[in-house]
Specification:
Layout (H helix, E strand, L loop, with lengths): L4 E2 L9 H9 L40 E2 L23 H9 L5 H10 L2 H20 L1 H4 L4 E2 L7 E6 H12 L9 E4 L10 E3 L6 H5 L8 H22 L6 E8 L16 E4 L13 E7 L14 H8 L17 E6 L30 E6 L7 H4 L5 H15 L12 E5 L23 H15 L2 E5 L6 H14 L10
Parallel strand pairs: 1-4, 8-13, 9-11, 9-12, 12-13
Antiparallel strand pairs: 2-3, 4-7, 5-6, 7-10, 10-11
Helix pairs in contact: 4-6, 4-8, 6-8, 11-12
The structure holds ligand AR6.
């Protein structure tokens, strides 16, 4: 069992009785909690949904917990300590919030982009359900979530119901305005005080994005994904569902490999010219790369619309990680198991839904995503050359080595196949989205491919490389891999 710290929703902080209930499938109802309703739709694989722990609501707002649950941060516009009372009419919500922020993209989406049935569905069906779910936060999430702090291995497991409840609050912007950098880390030892940096999680920044007063294509696609998620999950919750789980874990590289001494031989790389990383979802033992930002989610709640942002929209539950994931340092990454895909690229319904049979014993689907932030080298050639420095290459090697062999505390070692591609290498093009080219990380594709090959060999995992149709990349990578393999080249660049 992992010695790392976990959140209250994970087994570590539950007492023995609760652990037993989780593991032996005992469905004894606990009248204090609706999670324990006796006859829920429990499938043969999902033993039972965990009990939120503790059963009674705890009001807490301190520096190591995300302040989402505190009455101090659930306020109305006059600062009263209560959740915003929203009548089930969208206009009143928008009016209230527009005092703080102008939701021009959001308005334009409903006025100019969405069709009549989308508008009707949202205002009459989905929005009231989002409001109901948001208001249930003290009951569904009775305990503040411990932040996945930098330099600490820790993990959080949430039910899909809890995630939906948290995201409902983010949708309605009821969390305290965070602005990226929030509060200092309280500690009894003054010297250890530091600032904890987490991303923003309210959706207001997204609602404000517009181009000449109009909702951009990318924001429209994002909103469609988000609305489709809420529509699906709230309907499922009404039918007694939502008991699947998602685990979020922060991994730390404890010891750097001795790269110059490694005698591990560079192995196989499958080169895939057609697939997208996310299309490999659900294939057993596939670990899918999120080309991440140091702040998890990157620009998903803003203008950003490249690989990470798209992934966070289609696997919408990933968005909740913005609430509790501190900015990554060099030796860190996040691994997420169980985030379901709800949409395809255009923000419309995904054809195939994950079935309950696809879930593990804890109710998580077999989708493994690793959030790995590459170094940013920008767009001008002189700063891009910095990636050839030894320190830069070592940083990327170590980061990839860590990410390629994720640990989830309770999982056995696996023979992973890492699904990756042009990590840290800049601009993607997809017709459904407007691309913000300022976010190009500026990595050299060939260099990054070699570094990932080395990290994969060192981690003893296979590698599946999606070239994303970049012209000339697939043949040159094939040639390179053939030469390396034929000569049995080791990670330390020797010959075996
Ligand atoms: N599947 C496979 N390859 C892809 C895909 C995909 N779905 N999408 C893009 N590529 P980028 P980065 C290829 O720029 O450089 C975000 O804002 C394509 O060749 O998304 O690591 C994060 O939040 C593309 O040029 O990742 C960070 O802030 C290349 O992968 C930042 O971007 C890189 O995709 C990370 O930038």
């Amino acid at each position: 069992k992992s010695t790392s710290k976990t959140n209250g929703y994970d087994t570590d902080e539950m007492d023995e009785a609760e652990i037993n209930m989780m593991t032996n499938g005992n469905t004894t109802p606990n009248s204090q909690n609706p999670e324990d309703a006796p006859e829920r739709n429990i499938t043969k694989n999902v033993k039972r949904s965990p009990t939120p722990f503790p059963p009674d609501y705890i009001d807490c707002w301190d520096s190591t917990h995300t302040p989402v649950f505190s009455s101090k941060c659930i306020y109305d516009e006059k600062g009263r300590r209560e959740i915003i009372t929203m009548d089930q009419n969208s206009n009143s919500i928008i009016k209230k919030h527009s005092k703080f922020c102008r939701f021009r993209g959001f308005h334009s989406f409903f006025n100019d982009v969405a069709n009549a049935s989308e508008v009707e569905d949202f205002f009459l069906r989905t929005l009231p359900k989002i409001i109901d779910l948001a208001l249930r936060i003290p009951e569904i999430c009775p305990k503040p979530i411990r932040i996945l702090l930098a330099r600490e291995e820790s993990q959080i497991t949430l039910t899909q119901l809890q995630i939906a409840c948290l995201l409902s609050n983010a949708f309605l912007c009821t969390f305290p305005l965070q602005g990226g950098i929030l509060w200092s880390h309280s500690s009894t030892d003054e010297k250890k005080k530091r600032r904890v940096i987490i991303p923003e999680s309210n959706f207001d920044r997204l609602y404000a994005v517009h181009y000449k007063g109009k909702c951009s294509k990318s924001v429209a696609a994002k909103l469609r994904c988000i609305l489709h998620y809420f529509d699906t999950i709230t309907t499922r919750i009404e039918g007694g569902g939502g008991e699947g789980k998602v685990t979020f874990r922060r991994n730390i590289l404890e010891r750097e490999p001795q790269w110059t001494e490694s005698r591990k031989v560079i192995g196989e790389m499958v080169i895939d010219e057609e697939s997208l990383i996310e299309d490999c979802t659900g294939k057993e033992k596939y670990l899918e790369m999120d080309f991440a930002n140091r702040m998890i989610g990157g620009g998903v709640l803003g203008k950003g619309c490249i690989q990470e942002e798209i992934r966070f929209c289609i696997n919408t539950e990933l968005l909740v990680s913005t609430l509790f994931t501190e900015r990554f340092e060099d030796h860190e990454c996040a691994v997420i198991k169980g985030a379901e895909r709800f949409s395809n690229y255009s923000g419309e319904e995904e054809d195939e839904e994950d079935t309950d049979e696809d879930r593990d014993e804890q109710g998580r689907i077999e989708t493994w995503i690793v959030a790995l932030d590459a170094m940013y080298f920008g767009r001008d050639s002189s700063s891009q050359k910095k990636q050839l420095q030894k320190s830069s290459m070592l940083r990327e090697l170590n980061k990839a080595r860590l990410g390629f062999q994720p640990c989830l505390g309770d999982t056995e070692d696996r023979q992973w196949c890492v699904v990756t591609g042009n990590w840290g290498c800049g601009v993607s093009l997809h017709s459904s989205f407007i691309i913000n080219t300022d976010q190009a990380f500026g990595g050299y594709q060939d260099l990054k491919a070699v570094l990932q090959l080395m990290a994969a060999a060192e981690a003893e995992v296979k590698i599946w490389y999606c070239t994303f149709g970049v012209p000339g990349l697939a043949p040159s990578l094939k040639e390179l891999v053939n030469v390396l393999k034929k000569n049995r080249i080791t990670v330390s660049c020797g010959k075996l």
